[in-house]
Amino acid sequence: MKILITGGLGFIGSHTVVSLVENGFTPIIIDNCSNSSEEVLMQIETIIGKPLTFYKEDVTDGLALDRIFTTEKDIKGVIHFAAAKAVGESVENPLKYYHNNITGLVQLLTIMQNHQVNNMIFSSSCTVYGQVEKMPITEDAPVQAPISPYGNTKKVGEEIIQDVAKSSDLQAILLRYFNPIGAHPSALIGELPLGVPQNLLPFITQTAVGIREKLSVFGSDYPTPDGTCIRDYIHVLDLADAHVIALKRLMNQQQESNIEIYNIGTGKGTSVLEMITAFEEVTQQSLPYEMAPRREGDTTIAFADTTLVNEKLGWKAQRTLEESLDSAWKWQLNISNKTL
Ligand code: UD1
Predict the structure, then answer these.
(1) Region at 11 (left for phi over 0; alpha for psi -120 to 50; beta for the rest)
(2) Any idea where the domains of the chain sit in the sequence?
(3) By the 8 A CB rule, do 83 and 7 touch?
(4) Do strands 215-218 and 259-264 pair parallel, antiparallel, or not at all (unpaired)?
(5) Half-sphere exposure for 34 (CA within 13 Å, toward CB)
(6) Assigned architecture for domain 2-180+234-264
(7) For a surface tag, which of 88, 152, 237, 261 has the fewest beta carbons within 10 Å of its beta carbon?
């Protein structure tokens, strides 16, 4: 069964492609390689042991999308990852974000409709919840005014899909990811941040390998047990599996309404200092770090209530934080050409 994967060479997309193949699907990948590279395709092909169909195209290009749907003829569903995702950059260049993430989504939905492709999984984010008072966060927590244009594109993206589903045969599952980390155990694919990493784990691994001098812990005076922020870090392979399970639910027409929304996290909160300690223990590396001022826009604490996704999709995160950290470290060593 052919499934179109937009952004299929990105961090989450590439791991999902592997999981799709392992589950008997035929992924058709589109990626413009703006934040990835064609080498990732070769690495995925090495992991799965066969060639893949890849189009180097941009999802905002409706003509290109139309050609792909026409050429491939029988695409049954779409997993839409392709989007820009740097919060800070989105504040500086909001139009890039609205163009990539919103225009891209609208073009994709339009071409899907023209080709009667009615199944979609959408990459959303826990960022749509903002700062929630009550932990863990359930899916019915109100969606808040986003703190960044990036966050707004996820909120508006969800709304666009919901509106389209009301007026057409579209069936969609919106997955709100918490904090994806880790890499494939082969260390052939993982997260490839451009420039200075904004996210915690790539910064940690780059510091441990000597690319960065030290990690700044953003804020030590938060109202948490150790004063640092708490997040729900989920292994990217668990996240990839969630897409495949959600896709099967769509394909088997098991969903209870034409839009379903699920949190994808572990349900467990880990502070920044706990992440540092766990990383040091798992990798036997000592990590230079310093306490620094709070980063603007950070929420104090966010972790998922995963009851709904457990019950409806039968999905639960399987991998431990230690496995995530170990795989991310091996990936970092691999791309830095170092051995343990
Ligand atoms: C961020 C985005 C979120 C996006 C997600 C994608 C913000 C405010 N939020 O989530 O919208 O969906 O990435 O993965 O950017 N930290 C440090 N030092 C660092 C880097 C991070 O202490 O050098 C801390 C942060 O303050 C935070 C935690 O580590 O408490 C996790 O940060 P990060 O990995 O950037 O994820 P989020 O901010 O949760």
Answers:
(1) alpha
(2) 2-180+234-264, 200-231+267-335
(3) yes
(4) unpaired
(5) 16
(6) 3-Layer(aba) Sandwich (3.40)
(7) 88
Q: Which residues lie with the beta carbon below 6 Å from any ligand 1 atom?
A: 85, 87, 125, 127, 151, 179, 198-200, 203, 215-218, 229, 231, 272, 295, 297-298
Sign of the C-alpha dihedral, residues 185, 187, 188, 190? positive
Mean pLDDT of 281-307: 96
What CA–CA distance (Å, rounded) separates 311 from 224? Answer: 30
Question: Would you place residue 180 in the very low, low, confident or very high pLDDT band (cuts 50, 70, 90)?
Answer: very high
Distance from Cα 49 to the centre of ligand 1, integer Å: 35
Residue 194, classified by CB atoms within 10 Å of its CB into exposed (0-12), middle (13-18) or buried (19+), is exposed
Look up tokens 């492609």; give the residue. 17
Q: Looking at residues 196-215, what average pLDDT do you find? A: 96
Architecture of domain 200-231+267-335: Alpha-Beta Complex (3.90)
Average pLDDT over residues 23-50: 97
